[in-house]
């Protein structure tokens, strides 16, 4: 399992109560000495201060946890300041920037030099949605893209599987630790992704303790789907008020794709949608696609008869510019 002294320092720093991503991004560039980190922590910690000895003790504790819990399921751990820590795309506030990642597979697939395309959508696509999405994924792979998605059922799984079927690379961003892949029924797909040169990546080293915590992790996963791509493509999705629009009261409609598309807008990540008005106009599974087209006139619309043209146009765009302005909790349970 690969990791650096710097990544252990970042992990240990994050374990202190009240220390979040924003504090780390503001105060650390990576590769600071333990003495420097402890001095910075003592300026913000309320109550009893920490010490170099205490920090080193915690650091050794987490290193032991890493090797014991993740040796078989995790290839490495990278953090802010490491040479291979992925650079995010777009403009994002400090509190939403990732500061460390666990990974299995080829972490270089998230490199800023790589052309990454996120392709996402709903959990239960029907009709021609799968076939059309597969055609789009295959065309992106043909043009050299790495396909990013979230390993969820439906459109996410279709994206990953078609990338593999097209002999391309794919990245699955998880809301769970690598020793507890979710959803469980997609474990085999996750293993296949790694076996065929792809990547599994997550911010989490512990299993969630409540449904509320899991929900927040899915939201955080959705933000990474936007931050680690050059363009995000929506295959199909319900809108927030689809149940009301189509009188499907009592039905819980998935919202992950909506969140990821919202994050992309916030971060200035280019967005595209799969949509053909003459066949999708009365399909509630394309409600979000229609809403996005109305909201953003310059959004890229991928139709059945323009896939090659639109994919080549998306692939030719320059990547979004990153904004460069820059008591303890147990991270491993």
TrEMBL record:
GO terms for biological process: DNA-mediated transformation. PANTHER family: PROTEIN SMF. This is DNA protecting protein DprA. InterPro entries: DprA, DrpA_SLOG. SUPFAM superfamilies: MCP/YpsA-like. Belongs to the DprA/Smf family. It comes from Candidatus Nitrosacidococcus tergens. It comes from the Bacteria.
